[in-house]
Amino acid sequence: MTLQPANIFKDVEKIRENAPLVHNITNYVVMNTTANALLAIGASPVMAHAVQEVEDLAGIAGALVLNIGTLNDGWIDAMFRAAKTAKSKQVPIVLDPVGAGATPYRTQTAKDLIQAFAPSIIRGNGSEIMALCGQSQSTKGVDSTSESNQAVDAAKTLVREIGCTVCVTGETDYIVSAQTLYEVKNGHALMPRVTGLGCTATAICGAFAAVNPEFDKAAAHAMAVMGIAGEIAAEISSGPGTLQVNFIDALYQLSETDIKKRLKA
Amino acid sequence: MTLQPANIFKDVEKIRENAPLVHNITNYVVMNTTANALLAIGASPVMAHAVQEVEDLAGIAGALVLNIGTLNDGWIDAMFRAAKTAKSKQVPIVLDPVGAGATPYRTQTAKDLIQAFAPSIIRGNGSEIMALCGQSQSTKGVDSTSESNQAVDAAKTLVREIGCTVCVTGETDYIVSAQTLYEVKNGHALMPRVTGLGCTATAICGAFAAVNPEFDKAAAHAMAVMGIAGEIAAEISSGPGTLQVNFIDALYQLSETDIKKRLKA
Amino acid sequence: MTLQPANIFKDVEKIRENAPLVHNITNYVVMNTTANALLAIGASPVMAHAVQEVEDLAGIAGALVLNIGTLNDGWIDAMFRAAKTAKSKQVPIVLDPVGAGATPYRTQTAKDLIQAFAPSIIRGNGSEIMALCGQSQSTKGVDSTSESNQAVDAAKTLVREIGCTVCVTGETDYIVSAQTLYEVKNGHALMPRVTGLGCTATAICGAFAAVNPEFDKAAAHAMAVMGIAGEIAAEISSGPGTLQVNFIDALYQLSETDIKKRLKA
């Protein structure tokens, strides 16, 4: 299915006007990066993980973003409390299963969160999404098309079981829901060389989910915006250092014309 | 009251010469940012929160900066221990009540720290300072002048009760003490779009308090330097990403001429 | 002893081809910075500290980097578990004793890790390396040559006791092993003004140790690459903010010609 630039930009404008509060319980490595990306697109980020306050914040947020990147048991407790409140207040939950498949601790935590709360959107790379379905990724170097197919199949399984939207990001981003499949081909090869741009994609999904209750479209719009901002940034960057900085500027400056000119979806 | 560029720059030179140790117990989101800002202005930052060592560090620091941005009970314990040592050694304490008013946990922690240690400087935005006085900010969209007035009144109440200097930052920064009221009108609209520049303002207060025992002037000088560096950076930035980077350069390069030319206070 | 540009670049190429997994248990301040530096040079960083998963990750890593910058007891526990696994699987361990000498807690933790696991490489500044030998640095302002001599002597003592490679970094970097002493004179005066570039040097040692089992050469090559990338970055930077960003680009772009042209070792 195809995306409409005007609809993508309508979401961007809503974010800029309403500055939705996005509550993140996320990993130490990317906190600064994802907070800056959320501010740049126009949202209001809050990073908080204390069990004494996560329920207060999740209950008033426009979206709750859970990211298991640098996990420990205290944080898992906070994630469950925040998610329970979010669920009861119909605040959309977005999950990033960072490193699922790499250790049993991460895989199990991601699965437990999914079973307990059925997040609105799950965003991960192919191997993470496959790990959530009990599959391990084929070894490095195999044909990337067949790998993408496997990951999309895993996403479809998750969608059937949970009833959520699943984003599988990579060279092409696949956004899978019960009714829809979007493919976003924007982005740039330098982007995976910046730590936390995957986590940023998930946080940006939170901003879009806060203004667009059709979560498949929210996720697809978020991926298009990520990819387009990455392309704009890459054109004036000489490596991942400048890319990280220019990417934030590009999110901030993003216009409807940019989206119309560049969208590949 | 008005500030003298020569006096502001005198403090900057003292920081550059003495490289005062600024001990920060601060939030995860901004640790890197505030450490870099402190290094750029010429101070020596140390970030440490373990109860096993905070007393050792606070006791030898030029200033102790407490920031409640990503709180938990262990960090509160560390803050109390560090502050107790700082107090006994007459090391100035600077408090940033990040998010006071947003959750009871933060509001209460900030109040407890203030009651127990009477910080030399408290820096926050209007709604945070009002929350410390038990007031909630008027809803969004009201006339910003009346809002500033309310926040300055709250600051005056705090000053009377605690005997400290209170900085209310916003489009105009108000620095309130028992004897003085400074208004600093430097800064740039892009600055709030960079995460952690408020926290950075607090950390920079720490650097100035370490070299200038007149804390009202130290805080006002710090706010002037923040705003001027932000203006210089904004002139060559195309968004919040480049602003963050150029701001650090501007702090590092800051000259007396820059201050003379730009100061609005 | 002298270093060969071709051999340095051979290690860089191996890192770029093999993308070795570097497991970091490191401090909050620099996590983002060191992850980005590792990605820029071509390695695959993972940051993880939960006791539930550090053994899983350390066991499959190409190197384990331990950095005691923002320590607490939970993290020390994780470091010991990860190091035990790394040792049993012959995964090289690289230690950064950040702030050893500043507090007994840090000095003791660094010493305990060294006694228990005999890291392959220890990288610190002069005062940290001296603290590991029970010496305190002479007061500020003394002749830097005599200070360097003292630190190199301390490094030699450590090498004798532990059988490791010790890197003492400063204006000149000294890489000391049982058989070899390398002196790397690359680098730029702006580099210590960026927080975490010391920690980054340690992380980059991890990337080189993962592809070069001669740890003295691995460490010396890493220091040469750090210094050269810093010089390249400094030429186009106007302060520590742009330096941090350009340094990452320089690591990413680094060519054999750059190394040939600039190496001072």
From TrEMBL, chains A, B, C:
This is Hydroxyethylthiazole kinase. Keywords: ATP-binding, Kinase, Magnesium, Metal-binding, Nucleotide-binding, Thiamine biosynthesis, Transferase. Coiled coil: none annotated. It is an enzyme of class 2 (transferase). Pathway: Cofactor biosynthesis; thiamine diphosphate biosynthesis; 4-methyl-5-(2-phosphoethyl)-thiazole from 5-(2-hydroxyethyl)-4-methylthiazole: step 1/1. Its EC number is 2.7.1.50. Belongs to the Thz kinase family. The gene is thiM. It comes from Desulfobacula toluolica (strain DSM 7467 / Tol2). Substrate binds at M47, G196. GO terms for biological process: thiamine biosynthetic process; thiamine diphosphate biosynthetic process.
